C-alpha cells in the first residue's frame, strides 16, 4: 500500500505534516538544538506509534474474545544508543489492565498475537532492538 507523505518546515526544525489519513502532525526539535520546543520529537512519535499499533490490536482482539476491562494502558521504557544514529537498543512495553476477574490467559493471548503476528510497528522495531513486554493486572 503506497501512501504519500509531505512535510513542510514552518520554522527552523519545526515541521508540519498532513498525514495520508488527513490528520495534522507537528514535529519540533528542542531549543538546545535550535528548535522551538512546540511539538513532540520524532522519536516520541515512534514510541507513540508502537503503543498505538499494539494497543489497537489488543483492544480489538479482547473485544472479539468478549473480555471487558475498565482501563487499558501501555507504558514504554526505551533506551537509545549514545552514538549516531541513536537507534533504540531496548524497548520494554508494560500492558496494564484494570478490571474485575480479568482472564489472564486471554490478556496474554491478545498481547502475544499483537506482538508476534499483527503489530507491524513491533516487527519493525524487533529488527533492530530487543523488544520485551509484560502484562500487569491492577485491581
Automatic annotation (TrEMBL):
SUPFAM superfamilies: OsmC-like (SSF82784). PANTHER family: PROTEIN YHFA. This is Redox protein. It comes from Oceanotoga teriensis.
Amino acid at each position: 500500500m503506497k501512501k504519500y507523505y509531505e512535510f513542510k518546515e514552518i520554522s527552523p526544525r519545526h515541521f508540519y505534516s498532513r498525514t495520508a489519513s488527513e490528520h495534522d502532525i507537528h514535529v519540533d526539535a528542542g531549543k538546545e538544538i535550535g528548535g522551538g520546543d512546540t511539538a513532540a520529537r520524532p522519536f516520541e512519535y515512534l514510541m507513540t506509534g508502537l503503543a498505538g499499533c499494539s494497543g489497537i490490536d489488543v483492544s480489538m482482539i479482547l473485544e472479539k474474545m468478549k473480555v471487558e476491562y475498565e482501563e487499558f494502558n501501555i507504558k514504554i521504557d526505551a533506551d537509545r544508543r549514545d552514538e549516531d544514529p541513536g537507534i533504540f537498543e531496548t524497548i520494554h512495553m508494560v500492558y496494564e489492565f484494570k478490571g474485575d476477574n480479568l482472564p489472564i490467559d486471554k490478556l496474554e493471548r491478545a498481547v502475544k498475537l499483537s506482538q508476534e503476528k499483527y503489530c507491524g510497528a513491533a516487527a519493525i522495531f524487533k529488527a533492530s532492538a530487543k523488544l520485551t513486554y509484560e502484562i500487569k493486572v491492577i485491581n
